[in-house]
Structure formats: C-alpha cells, structure tokens
Automatic annotation (TrEMBL):
Pfam family, one: ABC_tran
InterPro entries: AAA+_ATPase, ABC_transporter-like_ATP-bd, ABC_transporter-like_CS, ABC_transporter_ATP-binding, P-loop_NTPase
ABC transporter domain segment(s): 6-233
Family from the record: Belongs to the ABC transporter superfamily.
SMART domains per the UniProt record, alphabetical: AAA
Protein keywords: ATP-binding, Nucleotide-binding, Transport
Lineage: Bacteria, Bacillati, Bacillota, Bacilli, Lactobacillales
Superkingdom of the source species: Bacteria
UniProt name for this protein: Polyketide transporter ATPase component
MF terms (GO), sorted A to Z: ATP binding; ATP hydrolysis activity
Species this chain originates from: Limosilactobacillus gastricus DSM 16045
CDD domains recorded: ABC_DR_subfamily_A
Amino acid sequence: MVKNMIVIDNLTKDYGSGRGVFNMDLQIKQGEVFGLVGVNGAGKTTTFRMLMGFIKANNGNAQIDGFDVWKNASTIKNYVGYVPGEIAFPDTRSGQTFLKLQLDLLHQKAHENQKVNDLIQKLKIDTTADIKRMSKGMKQKVALVCAFMTDAKILLLDEPTTGLDPVMRDVFINLVKDAKSQQKTILMSSHMFNELEPTCDRIAFLKRGKIFDLLDQKKMDNLRLHQEFKIELEDEKSYQRLLKSNFKVSGYDNNKKIVKLTIHEKEDRNLIQELGMVNVKEVSIKRMGLDDYFAEELVTA
Ligand SMILES: Nc1ncnc2c1ncn2[C@@H]1O[C@H](COP(=O)(O)OP(=O)(O)OP(=O)(O)O)[C@@H](O)[C@H]1O
C-alpha cells in the first residue's frame, strides 16, 4: 500500500474574524502531486507555514513522513524542498554563492552540483548576478533551484511560478513531472490552472480557510472528457429546439440565439445528429478545464 507522506488532521490556525485555516483534514500519498487553489487570503500560505513548522497551529496537528511538523520542525526542514510564497534571500553576493551556501548547509554530495547546473541551465539563470538585484522572476527561479536540487522526498511549493514567464512555466511543469516520476510527493498552491491541470493528481479548493471542494482523479478525468459547444442558430425555432434538448445547457443568449452545451465525449454522436435537425450558423468547441470547474466558486469565494 502506498504510504501517506503528508497527513493533516483537524489543523487550525485562527487569526480571528474568520481569517486563517480551520479544521483542515488531508492525506497526501507518496508520489502524489496535490494542488491547493483559492482566492487571495483563502489560507494557502498559512497551511504551508504550519507544515514547515514556522507557525504553531491552535488546534489539530500534521505529520510529514511520520514526523510532527511542530515538534520535529528542524528534522523536517532538512528533507523538505520548500518554495515560500514571499521570497527574501539573505544578503549574499551572487546567486552562485547563495546556491553553494545552500548545498553546504544541506551537506549535499558532489554529484548534486551537476543537478544544480542542470537546473540553472533549464531555468536560464544568470547566477553571477547580485541576488538582491535580481528581478522577481529570477529570484523565483533561484528559489526553485533550491527546492528541486536536493534529494528531498517532499516538495512544498507556495505559488512557485509567481513572476515566471510562460516558457519558464512550461519548464516548471516538466520539473514537477520529473519529480513525480521519482516518487516525490508535492503539495503546491497556484492561481494558474494551466500549470495545475497537467501536473496535479488531486486539487483542493480552499475557501475562507476550509477545504470547500476536492477534485479527485475521477472528477479530473471526467472533466477532461467534457467539451463546451457554443452554437449560434439561424432562427428562433432552431434556438428553442436546442435549448429544450436533453443536453446540459451551460449558457444561452436569447438575442444572439446562442446555446452553450456541455457534452461528454460519448454524447458527441447524439449532438451531431441533433445539429443536423436545426439550422446552425456557427459552432465553436472548447475543452472543459479547471477554470470552468472552479469558475463559480472563484466568483462566490
Ligand atoms: N500573521 C497573521 N496575522 C493575522 N492574520 C493573518 C496572518 N497571516 C495571515 N493572516 C490572514 O489569514 C488569512 C489567510 O492568509 P494566507 O496568507 O494564508 O492566504 P493565501 O491563501 O495564501 O492568500 P494569497 O493567495 O493572497 O497568497 C488572510 O485573511 C490573512 O490576512
């Protein structure tokens, strides 16, 4: 049986006025990539900070690979790769010096240097630059190297792609996939659905400090099998017929005679048949994604 690497049990940090994290329960298995989403202030960073042992929970507890995150905080830090939500580097001269310092601190073996160099190349970092003067994206890249360069079994990544350009986001996605193939366990938060979708096995939606919705593998697969058809009809009769059909109507526009239908792959044939019975002006098709799934929750959060 695959073991749980991260176990969160009734974890609570109450900052008052409904702010913080409340009664969080979660188990993340070895080799799993787990995503945390939520609007600003939902409690993502607070969760990471408790898991890193930076802040003490008011209630409940959490274990990483069997170690209590508060009582064994120093042990955990040695083998968890962590990217903080807000990066503040110490005043070292260059990125290179900083990364070397990190390697020394972690007592990493010589071969790890090769890994660091690979990461530096992949992420296109100029390590000679003064770390304090690096752009936001560059600092983020250095933080990613720190998290991914070690043999850490667990990666805690709090908004890891903040400030990265789209090309670098793709590089990041590949780093996560590589880490997963090495059986690393990853918990990451993000506002970017396009990086969660290809990487995460499960995703939790955090709302006012509570897990409001959990998208498991089955739901994720099901979502991927759905498409939204936006169909513009020629006449009122066709419009009314489609609107009253048995397909799931996800939107409509009376004036423009547009009907949006969310269709499972296996309904495609039936829809094509139905479209043969009405006068269609234009059809566009969009694959359903996490942004569609969470759209309503994001608006009402
Ligand atoms: N030290 C603190 N003292 C008081 N309130 C705090 C403290 N830290 C966080 N909070 C509050 O707790 C809530 C959760 O904050 P948190 O930083 O965890 O949110 P987040 O989901 O990471 O948000 P973002 O997406 O903006 O990074 C917010 O309302 C925040 O203002």
